[in-house]
Amino acid sequence: MSIDFKAMDKIAEGKTKIIYRNPENEKTVYMVFKDDITAGDGVKHDVIPGKALIDWKTNRDTFELLNRKGVRTHYISSPEEKVALVRKLDRKINLEVVSRRVAAGSILKWSNTVEGQRYDPVITQFHYKDDPLHDPMLDDTYIDYIIKAKSASEYAVMKRINEQAFGYLEVAFANFDIQLIDIKLEYGIIDGEVYLIDEISGGSFRLWPYAHKNPNLNQDNVLGELNPEARLDKDTYRMGQSTDMVKNKFAEIANITAGFKDID
Ligand SMILES: Nc1ncnc2c1ncn2[C@@H]1O[C@H](COP(=O)(O)OP(=O)(O)OP(=O)(O)O)[C@@H](O)[C@H]1O
Ligand SMILES: [Mg+2]
Q1: Tens-place pLDDT, residues 70-81
Q2: Which atom of ligand 1 is nearest to the CA of 87?
Q3: Nearest residue to 154 via CA among 197, 122, 187, 182
Q4: Which of 30, 84, 207, 212 is deepest in the core (most CB within 10 A)?
Q5: Ligand 1 pocket, 197 CB below 6 A?
Q6: Distance from CA of residue 5 to its chain's centroid?
């Protein structure tokens, strides 16, 4: 029997998901995926029929991998198509936490970084979530200062979980000859602890296939080892490819993450 959302309380509706109260358990909520896709902090918007189902699969298979690895996430299960059951947030943290292995995207515009530069260890930055302000980045030295001087331990925990999640997903995608370039994740407080929340789907990361077998990824710049033209992620949409093409790429991601089930 399917869940009757019409009879349920809608707690929140965002750009890509609707959150419903679970009448059977106040500690959990249902997250229902939508077909909408947005970019440019919500300025560009389309509806791609079938995207919700694709993103739901990617979300399920990535979160289930992270849960198996022992990462602290809100994800519980995916009771039916397009629906995830998650632990209910007590408090949302209004940050996006970005970890990068390879320089791409916005970082190239505001720094002198060259595309393809490799970071080892990965770098992690916090962005204040606010569309009209274009998600401004918080200063690293200030974050380090408040962790040390003000015991603002949440930042250290978010950084740790983000890098842990990045590491597991990077290894998982490598099985399919794909480099995880960067990832953007969100956090909240549940029962007094920091949890990885929200969704992980085609808009959460950059994925570039290897340019050839056995790439040498241990060098300062790995652009020549990778094939950004064949990218699978939301940059296809940002760069103006057709919604059909974007949907095909997102479906490719879901096909790959389906293989995560075989990773312990
Ligand atoms: N575990 C959770 N419990 C309750 N609410 C959650 C949970 N995880 C995510 N949410 C909320 O789901 C809402 C809808 O998500 P969606 O991503 O569609 O919003 P959005 O328009 O992208 O806005 P945002 O910029 O906050 O992500 C967000 O307000 C988010 O905080
Ligand atoms: Mg969102």
Answers
A1: 999 999 999 999
A2: 1
A3: 187
A4: 207
A5: yes
A6: 25
Residue among 92, 189, 195 whose CB has most ligand 1 atoms within 8 A, to mutate: 92
The string of pLDDT tens digits covering residues 92-141 is 999 999 999 999 999 999 888 999 999 999 999 999 999 899 899 999 99
Which ligand 1 atom lies nearest to the CA of residue 42?
21
Ligand 2: distance of its center to the CA of 14 in Å? 7
Check if 74 has its Cβ closer than 6 Å to any atom of ligand 1.
yes
Domain layout of the chain by residue ranges = 5-87, 91-242
Tokens of 84: 């995830």
Please give the CATH architecture assigned to the domain spanning 5-87.
2-Layer Sandwich (3.30)
Ligand 1 pocket member 249 (CB < 6 A):
no
What pTM was computed for the model?
0.96
Q: Which of 128, 138, 130 is nearest to 42 (CA)?
A: 130
